[in-house]
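tl;dr need the bound structure. longer version: we got a ligand (iron/sulfur cluster) that a collaborator sent over and nobodys looked at where it sits. i said id run it. heres the input, straight from their email, havent touched it
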Amino acid sequence: MRPPGSPEERHPSLDSKIVAALDRVGDALQVLARRAAGAHDLSPTQMRVLVRLYYGPPPDAVAGELAREFDVADPTMSDALSALARKGLIDRSPDPADRRRHVLGLTAAGRAVAHSVARWTAPAEVASSGLSRSEGEGLLSTLLDLLERMHAAGMLSVARTCTTCGHFERGSAPGAWPARHRCAYYGYPMSTSDLRVDCAEHVARGGSGAARG
Ligand code: SF4
């Protein structure tokens, strides 16, 4: 019998160990986010908003879309945007297409801060840089499949990955390497390392028009 509180009891199956490991990776990324944001007197959410606005749509630069993007409540996003506006990093102007909402933009100061934090995840790449190409592609493929399933299960509001895209044509059998896929939008073949985690041209499977998770 396993003693109470033993490691085996905490993570009694392979699935629970995988999820626990992903949780720890998430913890490490949160630490990085807090450090990068704190260096500019920002919260992690404020920093992520700046970076999103820096790279441009999708999502649309409006409060509701950003709240959905980061899976936070509307009031939480509203607080973050108010703080960024007070700091002079974003401005808001009425949306000509819908006067009830405001379009967000970076100020010159906001653009400079966003530029300096845009690659805030780069220090974590030391963890994957030692993998061989086949190991790295295998890991990316697995993570994209996990994201696809979590999105399908409603745990992730937005997913703009190739594996959730209506333009994606999966080539090789799962696990085959090197994989040969195809993007029907761009009309070119893709290896696993070409797969995108966040693509502006993504369309939901069975959908049409502008990219949406
Ligand atoms: S449009 Fe973008 S997300 Fe969709 S398959 Fe092509 S590269 Fe991937």
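gonna send this back to them w/ a short note. Residues 162, 165, 167-168, 183, 185-186, 196, 199, 201-202 surround iron/sulfur cluster (CB under 6 Å).
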